[in-house]
Give the backbone structure.
Amino acid sequence: MRVVLAEDLFLLRDGLVRLLQAHGFEIAAAVETGPELAAALAELDPDVAVVDVRLPPTQTDEGLQCALEARRKRPGLPVLVLSQHVEQLYARELLADGTGGVGYLLKNRVFDAEQFVDAVRRVADGGTAMDPQVIQQLLARRSGDDRPLARLTPREREVLELMAQGRSNAAIAGKLVVTERAIAKHTANIFAKLGLEVSDDDNRRVLAVLAYLDHGR
Amino acid sequence: MTTDTMNGTGRTTGRGIGLAAVRGLALALLSLPGAVLCFCLSLVSIALIPIGVGIVTTPYVLTGVRAFANARRVLAAEWGGVRIPPAYRPLPKDANPWARTFGMLRDPATWRDLRWLPVDMTAGFVTALLPAVLLFYPLEGFAIAAGLWRVLDGADGYWYGFVRVHDQSSAFGAGALALVLLFFAHFLTPRLLGVHFRLTRAVLGGDQRELAERVRVLTETRRDAVDASAAELRRIERDLHDGAQARLVAVGMDLGTIEALLDKDPEQAKKLIAQARASSVEALTELRELVRGIHPPVLAERGLGDAVRALALRLPVATEVSVDLPGRAEAPVESAAYFAVSEVLTNAVKHSGADRIWVDLHRADGMLRATVTDNGKGGAVIGAGSGLAGVERRLGTFDGVLAVSSPAGGPTMVTVEIPCA
């Protein structure tokens, strides 16, 4: 699996390269500025891009803009965005096209190598990897005035949170140490309570949940 | 002892009168030709602007006028103790004659100088000359009484004041008049010179009250700004010291213990590694919160509009944000506006009981305006200790203003205005 990596701090870039190589990824390019990233994404056609939001030369959200632009040119191009802080505003922009293949994580999630690599793979496969903090912010914001959310049991809420992060039933079952069938039952209940259409496709299911949390639809 | 002192005082007063008279004479001799010359040159030079010559000469002439006015300011301060602060606008060093000419002509201080010149050559001249006349005219009277009348006596005598001097007795009459004049000079001479300087200040000085008020406001806001930034630094120091710094120490200690345990007790070492990782995550979380309080990352990355949008998304109350900001304002202005809006929003969420908030940001006519409206219960005031008073104080540094409209029963509308270029 070929990765384009954009990160301006040498230590982090170097660490990410080693981490990804150790887990069998091929680094197509490891760049440090926005224009370099735009060129690499256009020319190298990677399987997934791992991108820092803030990049030189502007030190603003150059990385995010490059990623969004590349996805406009090639819809569904898998992009995992890393940042020192997570904002719902950015998450919303990344999810706006509704095609999946999007990740948005805090930089310190790389501390847990297994989970991070799992997130990269998920995104590369067209799935979603939303930072738990984004999901918690969404839930905190909506729980005040949202009756359907208030009707969820604590366990269902926990499942909803993990599902919104982009995890599959199997992964959620593993994390909560229950059977996959139990999770399937929970998700069916959640969808019924929130009035969402049940879908077998994991990815579409995640996007529906995120859209619900973001806009109450 | 007492007598000595009295004599001393008498001598000092005598010298004071003499000094005032000499200074008055010098001022009169300086002001009349100086003011007439400056005034004529200025008029001619400005009149010649339409044919081009004036554009070259005016800056030089006006600089001369300023030098003349400044010399008089110095004299007023040294001789009369009257301070007349200059208030000229600075001119760009490398400006072309055109820019210099019109830069100077646009400066109200230039026109004040030009208004002052005719006053100086008339009333200024008289008030400067009078002290000298009051002292030197009596001296002539004494000289006449002492015998000078013989030299001056003409066909129909010599007029000293209203006394016709033609013999020794009328000369003594002139001497008596001189004595009376000297008596008045004793009181009036220094005062008249003072009148001259005060006249100069009245015409040449700027609007002192307005300036004094501005200085008072600036002093106050500067003190607030310094206080606020010192308090902010203390808070950051404390947060770093008790938070991230302490956690990194813990991580370092854990790593040391892990090193020692690695061979003896791998199980325990693994536990400690997990703990160290958790500590480092917590340190990062604390640093992230701290950074958000110093300068929110979205503000740096996207500017004010998106920073307020991102802030609104974090609020537990549904908040609509509309933004009309062409380009980005200066970083300090953006930051001040962000924290003002942030504080107002926090206030609204905490106290208003509102379930909807509207934020409107726009920039027009050199003003950045933020309006925060909520449908809560109203009754918000800018009182001591309230968050809004703090906002008002911090905005003061930027000449910004805070307006609150919050009738009991709501709605509350808070407007923040900051001048920005």
Q: What stands out?
A: Chain B touches chain A at residues 277, 280-281, 284, 288, 291-292, 297-298, 300-302, 306, 309-310, 313-318, 355 (CB under 8 Å). Chain B has three domains: 2-204, 211-294, 298-419. DSSP finds twelve helices and seven strands in chain B. The beta strands of chain B are 158-160, 163-165, 318-324, 356-364, 367-374, 401-405, 412-419.
